[in-house]
Each structure stands twice: as structure tokens, then as C-alpha cells.
Amino acid sequence: MDRILTEQRGPVTVLTVNRPEVHNCVDARTAVALAEAIEAFGADDSQHVLVLTGAGDVSFCSGADLKNVDGILDHPWTERAGPMGFAHLDPGKPTIAAVGGYCFAGGMELACWCDFRIAADNAEFGALNRRWGVPFIDGGTQRFPRIMGQGNALWMLETGIRIDAGRALAIGLVQEVVPAGQALPRALELAERMAEYPQASLRADRAAALGTFGLNLDDGLLLETGRCRPTVREAEMFAGLARFASGPRPDAPRPRDNP
What we know:
Helix content is 42%, strand content 17%. It is α/β, with parallel strands linked by helices. The model has no long low-confidence stretch (mean pLDDT 93).
């Protein structure tokens, strides 16, 4: 059975962690397959947005396979990508997590590797690895504070508390909460809209936003100038301006009502 399922829906790639019998936890084979799939998405010019999800209705990803932890520390992608196969990779394109059910430990790291998160109302989050003395080694200590603030990140990291989707929304861990079973459809809806936009400026804005941490404002503005200003000369931007001037203007996406 393939541990990572890859599906292309037009310019949108969907990667599914496919181990529902063990709550989609990640062993070495899964980590290698995930790293390879992310790299393939990044290299495919026809693919514009990546959506990550988990198989089944119970779990997005429950973290590393703690019964086979040695393997994730010593596979061909451990150093290049990280033990679970993603932490150090960046495809240079937008990524969305569609989270339903359990999102624990390294599963939270996987969700937070993505640019933003759409959660079903049955989603649960927690640093449950705290109970076993297992550290975060796939980016959690770095991405959690950036996403939800230092206090919230330390609250979760240190207490091992388990929270529902509503609390995750309140602290900024997720951006939308939708009914159970609708996280993937909603993520795809947004991904398809994003894939229609001119890509050069979108990717430049993404890179500048992600690259700003650790910079002061002046250096951040220089980063933005270097990354984003060149895209003003892209032909796709001029085509977009022509559509703006002469044609109907499509509505912008709006957040879904949260339960």
C-alpha cells in the first residue's frame, strides 16, 4: 500500500498520508515518500498549489511512528528533509493543510509546515509527545511561535494540552473551521482559486513573507523589494491589469462561517 497518495487535480496537487490504520503516523518509508512527493511537486511547473491531508475520517496525522522511531532518524532524507520528511523542504509554492481529526505531535509540525490550515470541526491538536519525553525535531519549536505567538506555543509545548478546532482558531493555529468532512473540499476550493492567480507575484509575496523572520523592518523592506518588485514586469501581471480594466472582476474568496 502506498504510504503517500498523490493526486493531481488540474494545477493542484493533493498529498494524502495514507496510514489510517495507525492514525496516519509517519514511519521511515512514509517520510521518504513524503519528501519525494514534495520535491516532485516543487519541480513540476504545471502544479501551482499543494494540499496536504490524511486518509480517513479519524486523523490528519498523529505524528511520528513511535514504535519505529529509529527508522525516521536514519533514512536517506533525514538530513535533507528532516526525520518526518518535510521540515527543511520548501517547494517555493503555496501549501495548505486540510486537517480533520487528530493532529498531534509531529502531525502538528506537518500542518504548520504548510502556509495555512483549514480545520474540520472534529479536528484536535496537541503536543501529546510531551507525555513520552519526545522532542519536536521537525520544525515545531520554530514554526509554532511564528504562527500562534510565543505564549500559546509554549503553553502547548510545555503542558501537552489537547485543544479543539475552535480553540485552535482562536489562537491563530488554524485559519478556518468548517464542518466535519469539509476541510479537504474547502482547501481545494481555495487552492483552485489561488492556482488561477498570476503565479510569479504570488510566489514572490510568499517568499518575502516567509523570509522576514529575524529581519528588522528596513532589511525586510529590502527583501520585499528584491523578491517582489521584479514581478511587476511580468507579462502575466500586465494581462491581469488588462482584465481589470476591461472585463468583469471575480469576487475574492471569503472566509467560511465557522461553527
